[in-house]
Each structure stands twice: as C-alpha cells, then as structure tokens.
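QA checklist item 7 of 12: single-chain prediction sanity check.
[x] sequence parsed
[x] length recorded as 487
[x] structure emitted
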Amino acid sequence: MSDLKFERRDGMKIVFVIAEAEPFVKTGGLGEVGGSLAAFLYKQGVDVRVIMPKHSAIAEHFRRDFKHLAHFEVPVAWRRQYCGIDWMVYQGVPYYFIDNEYYFSRPKIYGEYDDAERFAFFSRAALESLNYIPEFKPDIIHCHDWHTALIPLMLKEFYSQEPFFASIKTIFTIHNLKYQGIFPEEVLGDIVGLGREYFTEDGLEFHGAVNYMKAALLAADRITTVSPTYAEEIKDPYYGEKLDGLLRKKSECLLGILNGIDYELYDPLMDPYLVMPYHDIPLAKEENKKYLQSIVGLPVQADKAVLGMVSRLVNQKGLDLLAHVMEEIFELDVQLVILGTGETQYEEMLRYFAAKYPKKLALRLAFSDKLAHEIYAGADILLMPSRFEPCGISQMNAMRYGTIPVVRETGGLKDTIMAYNEMTGAGNGFSFPNYNAHELLFAIQRAVKIYQADKLVWGNIRQNALMSDFGWDRSASAYIDIYESLS
C-alpha cells in the first residue's frame, strides 16, 4: 500500500452516495464514516463529493448556508417525482442534498413504511443529479449500504447508453450485512422500474421478496466491507445472512478495509466535552471518571472500576450475554454506565437491573454524542460483547481516551483489539472467542482484577491502547488504491 499522506491526486473524481453523514445527520457508524472518510480523502487530494438526502433532521444552522443548485423530475417506475438539489461546502467537501419533502421530511431517518420507495427515489435522484453538478463527472460512484444499493444496477440498466455515464464505475461498501433492504415482490416493477426478468435467484429475488443489497452485489465493480475479518466472515453461513453463497462467488472483487475514526473529533487534548483534557493522563482519567459518576447519579468513588457501554440495544450487540451474567458482574466492585436505545426487550431488561442496582448501574436510554464522549473519557473499561461486528467504532473511540475494551473476537473487534498477554506485556484490551455469557464474564473478571491489583500493568495496557493507530491514513489509502484500480 502506497504512502499517500502528502501526495496530491487532483485528477481523481469520486462521489459518495450515502443516507447519512456527520455532522449533518448521524445515527451511528455509517454517519461517522460518511463524514470523516470524505474529509480525509479530500485532504489526500481526491476531488470527492457527497450526495445525501435533505433530511428534516439536518440542523437549521446548516440549512441557512445551503444554496439551491437545480430542480428537476425523477422517474420512480411509472411516476415522476420532484427533486431539488441544495448544496454547501463543509471541510472542503461539497455536499449535495436531495430535496423532496414527501420522502425526507420525516421524524425518522429509517424505518418508515415506504422505505422501499424513499430509497429507490434517492438512488435514482443521485444518478440524475450528476447531470446538474457543474464541471464534475465522477470516475467512480461509491455507494454505502442498502439504501444506495440499487445505484450500480440502475446505472447499467437505465444509463449505460448515455455518453456521460458510460465510463462511470461503482464501488459498494457493506457496513452491516444484516440490513439488506428486503421488500415485497411488487416493489420490483412498481417502484424500482425493473422487469420480471430480474425476479430470479440470479437477480433480485430473495426468498420470495426483493433484496436491494443483491442489486449492488451483482452489479458493482468492487465490493468492500469495513474490516478484513468481516470480509471473510460473511462468506460463512453463520455470518452471511443468507447471502454467503453470492459473496463467495464474488470473492475476487470483495475486500475488507478497516474503518478509521476522526482524530480531530475524538481528541483527548481538545475534546470540549471533557472536564479535564488529557495533558496529565492519570489525573485527567480520574477527574473525568469522577465527573461521569456524578452526572449519571452513581456514587463518586475513584477506586471502583467503571464499565461503560455505548451501543444500539439490539440483538447484534450481545445484550443477551450481558443479561445472563449481570448478577455476577455486580458481585464485582464495579459500576456500569450504559448509553443507547434499541429493542424493547433489552431496554426493559436494563431498566430492571438499573432499578435493582441503582448504585451500580446508570442507564440512559438516549442518543447523546456528549455523554458518549464523557463515557469514553470517564470509564475504565468498555464492553462490546457483540454477536457480530462489521467494524465497530466505539472500541477505537474508547482507546483514544485510554479506556480498555473487552470484546468478542469477531469482525472489526478482532482486527483492532489484541488481547493482553501477561508474558510479553503486549495487548490493548481483553477478548473472548466464543459467543458465550461466561466467557464474557471471565474476560470482565480478568480485566477488573488487573485494574484493581496491578496499577502498573493496567497503566501499560492503557498506554498500548493510547498508542494504537486508528486514524484514516491507511484506510483512506486503501480506498484510493481501489479507486485507481478502476479508473
């Protein structure tokens, strides 16, 4: 992989098409990548643009800076729908916002009854909008997750005869294979605008339904995932979400590239959410820990190990393992802070334990960037016992603040966390291989025992975590290598 840190590549033109991007809209890791990877590619000299929906959730202070570029009609099968394009430049990157209030002025980003139509419109509108961006023709359209998965197929089906589009290549990144965009059969003709010949096992048919993600897996020039281990795992039936056979067939064009994190956004020396920046690491850790305990209502006790969890509360994230051993965890001299929202069963389970152990567990069923940073800075240990984890961002964020992850060895967690080795002193966290509640418990017990009994060893593990490099340099360079291989 070439060192591209100071090399300008002004000739390469890339457009990201993505459903969310920080700082405009972020519901999770997808939004973080959408903003930070684009910004880093720009710094590397790539002419990168981003196309995303103009969600009503975008803050007014951004909207005031939007400029109207164009408006036109977009075919959605037999209909024609209004589309406007607003735009602005953020951190050097031009962002183009697909404007249609009917589709995007909604209380939720995802999970609406007509998501099939909303994102089919978005995909077609993104392609149409390329006609209206002055002096810009992309070499590559980089599509992210199922919301944009129709684009590679639409490009070939609807635009291949148009000279402007003929040479454009596509890359599709799988951020989470579990979410594929599966809809009823009638969506194929009535919304996507494709004929019955595509409703086959070798087309978009998927167990009697239509699968948007299959469109990209079949039609994209390259497929990437967000960690090398996940790229291998999804070829296996256990992780493959019933697409493992197709992914095995596409092995030659499938590559795993580990996500990075934005080191300016997660900077322990400059983070505005911290009560004390990390100039003196042990002191700053202690002060941020006491502050975290105080704001979540736990007893302020510096000697207790504080465990943190910043997560969607869904089956993927290992909440069932946590439930099985919560009583044993609270037999340890620890406190636990959990931030997130998700499935009702897990929210109710955590409410039960928070009521039973009010001095041990602080639960915040919310989405809060501020509190997430405060947990990363104030906790001693971060829990990520995931069933599967395409990449994971929280463990990398936590290590920026010297918070030590306890993870299951899967996907990006396996690629970023090296279990502490008592013989060599190497390792930046603790891990367990099997999806088993007591393996999680033993990993937590081991971490807590070292934290309490040997501050020198713990300090070394913390230093290993702080020295771990998860910036975008290598990952962005890997993407640039792929772009160059296609252009």
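[x] summary fact logged: DSSP finds 18 helices and 18 strands in the chain.
[ ] second reviewer sign-off
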